[in-house]
Amino acid sequence: MRDLTFAVLGAGHGGKAIAAHLAIKGFKVNLYNRTLSRIKPIIKMRGIELEGEINGFGRLNIISDRIERVVKGVDIIMVVVPADAHRDIASVCAPYLEDDQIVVLNPGRTCGALEFLRALREKGNRKNVIVAEAQTFIYASRGMGPAQAKIFRIKQAIPVAAIPSGKSNMVVKKLNVAFPEFIPGSSVIETSFNNMGAVFHPSISILNASRIESTMGNFQFYIEGVTQSVARILEAVDEERVKVGRIFDRNSVYSAIDWLSMAYNVVEDNLFDAIHSNPGYVGIMAPRTINNRYITEDVPTSLVPISEFAKLAGVKTPTIDSLINIANIIFKRDFRKEGRNLTSLGLEGLTVKEIREILTKGME
């Protein structure tokens, strides 16, 4: 299956890393970004320079801001944009996606695959498009220049699940030709509720807000940003997330400690030690501004849906709700209204059992 062709949607640090890595591996890769100016340097170089765990130059096939050129005829479409842009990407893709094409959200955050499918249907696409989501992003990576990216660490086991879940094994089998790190998830309940961005990103960012603003992010986000006190709040968020997720699937939702062991081979008995023992986090700097995706993406697409599901299931999530409220105050926005709430996901008025059926078997 080396003849598999890929489209990568999004030319941020993650999109550049995946596109370059695939090209270095010998796959035919197209790259899309909605803003032409961002990809002009990549067009000029005809590819992307990659450093870190993988070194080399990935020569790309098509690099364009015209999505119809990029997705036409490819086998697998890797969506690597902030999760709050998933709905927009689905709407733009809808006229061009065809039967049996596979769309993988990298990552889906919480209920990304469901939102993407719902947006395709709203735009009139009734093709047999298979939509899947990764539980986390495959790399710890950063952009190093307009046409450069660095992979600090490749995670070793990333669950991927499709809607319906019966398609997951087929999707992962194809992905494994390029990425052996992907493993089948039981369903998108597993990938959505084991969304570790919900645990780490908003909490560390909000609790380090003054430091980010005063230093313009001149500190190591995980290594310096996670003190003992911050770690205890991370553990509270994690406990609430696990409690909610296990209402929907008792067997597939695991703790952040277990995830760090699975993804990074880090074995500790508390989050502070686990984070500080993870070489994959060393050198990752904090964002330069508080107005960054760790809040503007992860609050509405991670914390909000977990909180919404908690209310439905009668589970209290005081730590998660506090972080949502603080983010609302900082940004003078209503992330709960803007985000993946039960209404926007088409789940309002349904029971836990009915939602479980949709997340495993699909909408139709």
Structural notes for this entry:
The chain is an alpha/beta fold. It has two domains: about 5-190, Rossmann fold; about 195-360, N-(1-d-carboxylethyl)-l-norvaline Dehydrogenase, domain 2, CATH 1.10.1040. Helix content is about 45%, strand content about 15%. The protein has 17 helices and twelve strands. The protein has helices at about 15-25, 35-45, 65-70, 85-95, 110-120, 170-175, 190-195, 195-205, 210-215, 230-250, 255-265, 270-275, 295, 300-315, 320-330, 335-340, 350-360; strands at about 5-10, 30, 45-50, 55-60, 60-65, 75-80, 100-105, 130-135, 140-145, 150-155, 160-165, 180-185. The strands form two sheets. An eight-stranded mixed sheet has the order 5-2-1-6-7-8-11-12, sandwiched between helices. Strand 11 (about 160-165), helix 6 (about 170-175) and strand 12 (about 180-185) form a beta-alpha-beta unit. The mean pLDDT is about 95.
